[in-house]
Amino acid sequence: MNFVKKIYRKSDIHTFCHFKHPYDPFNIKDAKTIIVGNTPPARFSTKELQEGDVDWYYGSRYNAFWSLLEQSCNSEQLLITKKERQNFFLQNSIGIFDTIEECSRSKGCGASDGDLYNIVLVDVLALLEQNKHKTLRLFFSSRFVAELFQKATKTKFDLRSREMQKISLRDKTLEVTILYAPSPSWARGLSETMRKNPKKNEIRLEQYSKICKN
Question: Which of 36, 153, 164, 212 could form a disulfide with 73 if both were Cys (CB 3.0 to 4.6 A apart)?
Answer without folding.
Answer: 212
